[in-house]
Amino acid sequence: MQLSNIEIVNFRCFGEGAKGFELSLNPGLTALVGENDAGKTAVVDALRFVLGTTDQEWFRLEDSDFYGESREIRIVCKFETLSATDKRAFVEYLTHGEGTDDEPVLYVSWTATNTGETYRGRAYRRVEVHAGMKGDGPTIAPEARDLLRCTYLRPLRDAEQALSSGRGSRLSQVLQRTEAIKDAGQPYDSTGTIDSETLSNLSILGIGDLANALIQKHQGVESARGSIDSHLGNLALAAEGIKSTIDVSGATDPDGVRLRRLLEKLNLSLSGKGKLGLGSNNLLFMACELLLLAKEEAGSRMLLIEEPESHLDAQRQLRAMAFLQDQAKDKGIQVIVTTHSPNLASAIDLNNIVMIRKGRAFSMAQGQTELEPSDYRFLQRFLDVTKANLFFARGVMIVEGDAENILLPTLAKLIGRDFTEYGVSIVNVGGVGLRRYARIFHRKATTDGNGQIGIPVACVTDMDVMPDCAPTIIGKMKEGQQWPPKNSNRRWRAKRDFTGQDQLRDHRKQLTSKTDGQCVKTFVSDEWTLEYDLALGRKGDDGQFSGGLAKDVYIAACLAEKDEAIHAGQEDVKAVRQSASEQFTLLSQKAVAADGCTAQEVIASHVYAMFAKDSVSKAVAAQYLAERLLKKARDGKLTEADLRKRLPRYLLRAIKYVTSAGSTSLGSASVAEEAKDV
Amino acid sequence: MYDTFRHPEVTDDDIGWASTLLGLPGDAFTRSDGKDTRQDVLKSIVPMDIAACPGSGKTTLLVAKLAILGKKWQYRTRGICVLSHTNAARREIESRLGNTAPGRHLLSYPHFIGTIQRFIDEFLALPWLRSQGIPVRMVDTDTCLRRRWNALSRGTRQGLESNRYDSSVLRIIAPDYSVRDLRWGRGKLGRQTTTYRQIQDACKDSIAGGYLCYDEMFVFASDCLDKVPQLTHILRDRFPLLFMDEAQDNSEVQSALLHRIFTAGPSPVVRQRLGDPNQAIYDFLGAEEADTDAFPNHANKTDLPNSHRFGQTIANLADPLGLDPYGLKGHGPRKPFGSGAADAEHTIFLFSDDGVDRLLDAYADLLADTFTEQELREGIFTAVGQIHSPTGDDHKPRHVGHYWASYDSGMTRADPKPETLAGYILVGRARAEATGEAGAAVEKIAEGILRLAEMAPGGDQATRRARGHRQILALLEQSSDIRQRYEDMVGAFALRREVVAKETWDSKWCAVAREIAEAVANVPLSRGEADEFLRWDRGSASAPAGQDHKASLNNMYRRTKNGKMVAIRVGSVHAAKGETHTATLVLETFWNRHNLESLLPWLNGSKKGKPSQGIEQPKRLKVHYVAMTRPTHLLCLAIRQAAVDNNSEQELMDRGWAIRRIGR
User: Fold this and answer.
1) Are residues B37 and B171 in the same domain?
2) What is the pTM (predicted TM-score) of this model?
């Protein structure tokens, strides 16, 4: 039987109505991911309350568990795909469908009411568990509820203790349910004789009983007893006929109790190793729990693990996750994990991921997002640990290349919007699939703002239309060459390919429409590419460009060109910088307006021409540029206001948008506002 | 591995263990001649119908068997299903095994021990109605019919009345909400008529609102089986062992439905039915006797003809009244007479018309003469009649009340449902006294208030819960002054047991109760029904706690003779079914004819078994067979003098009856 839906009302951060929580679950493994305080633990705790846990731990309801001023918490679990055993076990609690072929489902509705009464000085809360979709069915019998208990592994659990011997050890519980331990072998017969054959046929309990008997009859024990008796005699009590006996304690307890005591003596460890680390113990522990669950005859067969990554190194995390996913699938066990680990998240099938954000659940399963089946396959291949960061962010910036990846966080920091501070993750798709990543955040069929994820997602991309002067400057065309026809095989476009502003605007719209929607906004470079736009700067009211960071970009490009030589000690940084600076001055002095372009456009095109060379790596240049800007800011040569004036508009807007949710108190409504604002 | 069911084996050791657990001698089930069929019954787990005579220890047998099976039960998701018509079987297990581990286990999930109605409700009708969004608030035919009747227009009510129908026609017979065909004037009430529609709507609305009659639950249960074909499989999987007690009382509707659930078609469950076809008296209530899967099935029938209740004399006197006399064998009673007598004088009281009121005294005197003081203190002495509710005053003695004017037929039920609020208070007090727990009184008062609230027309209908008191407190949470008054009332009657005069009741409590009920219902009460319920009741809440008053509380008739105190419990035969008495007096009552009178040929031994024709006489025979097989020591009958001439008197004496005449 599978938990297919959970609904939570008035519990902790979940309210009522539109503020309530609802989550549909797939069979197998589900990972609840999201930033802190989003409500992941509340979901897990809600399940612990409704279903109960196998460790029988008493879990107290607190005042603070009630949402706001509410007085009734309601948690409803819906179970589907019931096995024959489940059906018979819960037959009186089932909800039947309308059609004769409809399979019955089971609703478990848990309510806690704060009645205002007190009991022995404590606030009394009435807790009831009923069947029925509206909780209008009968109270579910405690014995039937036992079948629903889930196995719960707390975060940072002490696996070592759980695996070691002692009272109530998990290992003993696992072993107790193992048929071969419970049933195999013969009991110890105190009247019979013990030969090697009966000895080898003894059951575990039999061995324990035999040992008890032997201990009791041991001559040391006997002689000790004898001397006690003689002391008793000396105390003149012997006349009263008092004799001592020495018993093994608990030897006459019921079978189950004796077996448990024996099994509690066992320790689980790995041979050949000394003391295991916390991580290995944790793995061992999870394996134990899965073993236990797989033996369950009926019921929820559910494993709740909070932060399975704890104590595990990155490689082990991936192995553990793969193991859990496989086991869940093979054995029909439902596993729900919460995690803060992008590493773990990257190992989980996207279909199984549920983002929890501000008390709402967003399943990434097919059908819930705008992602196409091919997108799932693509993302499964490429969603690595760095990209998986996007599940834990308050803002996501999706970029197409290394240059943006390196530069944008620096620029943001320099204008007072530090990405780390604002919880923004940057995802570098490396040239392909930008739209697929963006679509992760597109919910299917949401008309109201409620169903939206509400994380500002900014996609930054290039317009890729060069000014008319550029083709000759960057060597796409020879001087004086006739402009090649538009539909020829060339892979570049310039402004004159578009007739007027309308067509350019349409082109821009086409670029944004592919990704825009809900919380995803696309920011297309104002002119051509990141480097060009940085060099060109912002267009003023007079139609002139400010010149932006042209010199800095140029110098960075020159440094990048000589990067290897610099590292090899063949070139001196200062000298390179000095010569670059001089070249730039020369270049800008020479520049005149041409081909309908302003002098600034010509200069910027020349700067960009550096990047058109194979010898200049955009990434390396970006790194030099970032360092240069940071240094200038440190030296007081570049103020925040100054930089803001120099930066192209699209970057300012993208940074502003993506950090809009970061300033903690802003909700999704203000995200939309911010977006409009810029 | 989990999915195959293998029933536990019952060994001789288990039987010994169960005997000890039940406080019986170790050979309890192997006594008599050493080859007691009861031992075989305990051991066999195959389909079986057990025809058990009165006093054969059938219930003990069932309890012992359940204890053994319960102890050995390994399954967490399968259970034993034990069905009966009353909660007697459940109570028996509660009282005899309730404090043992197997007993507690049996009484809870995954097992089911309870009435057929509860089973049908819990496992079929309720889940089905719930799945269709119908929240069932109350299953109670009386309440339901009253509400539906009140929902009809005046014209429709008059129309029904003039065609001699009452509220009992206001129930559906099929899941499409159709009601039975009604004869209307000279023709039939057409389904398209407004009247029919209104009747149907009254039923529909009431069901949609969650109020259903008992038999309607069977309609929906059967609908559920139609629509969820796998349900029989699921239920058989859950309950691979089925026991049915008092199987002779199954109606056709019950029998057919249970047959369909558990035994029809391939892979039936292992079912064992226990009962006595001679004691099938509940069909008397108007339901059709079972035809489908009738009990007993002669193909796998086992007889238990040995009674451990009474001796051979009573066995001989009662045997001819059995529809299918199987030669009752009297192996009892366990305890001989304290007086040392071998047998008592089984007596027929012949009373004259003016001797009726003295009959119970005469019986009491006979008891005082027959039994020792200790026996009188410890024994159970009863006087029972077939008709015990007031039905009219002609053909006296028509009902039990004609022998004792203070007799209250509402009080004899296991869960009495008095006619007035004062009656509820009284029953509550009696209970509190019997159990020593004030809670019983509190609950009964709450029940009365809730019933009063239900009489409010169209008010917020409170679902009755097990804890009525809590429910009322919750409903009155917002109106603290009324809540206070309710608490005062409970305090006065349940805790302080105040004595209240008619004046105080009329001037104070009546209004208080009305106010509370209105607050609970959230609408004003109408007059009429509510007034009637609130009327001052004879010997009610105010009555002094004297001996006499106490005596009438639970229909105990008391008399002292020669310094010996005799207490006789007066009631109906139906209520006495399954009981064992020390002495039983069977009272003459009237149902179309005077009952015992018409049975004279069976009483004097000239007739035996079921008559070749007629349906009235077999029913009468069964009821009186039940009555006459109750006592361990003394059996008495009361018959009108006028019905017995000298000749028949002689015949009765020849048969072994002693005759005493009362009045002239």
Assistant:
1) no
2) 0.79
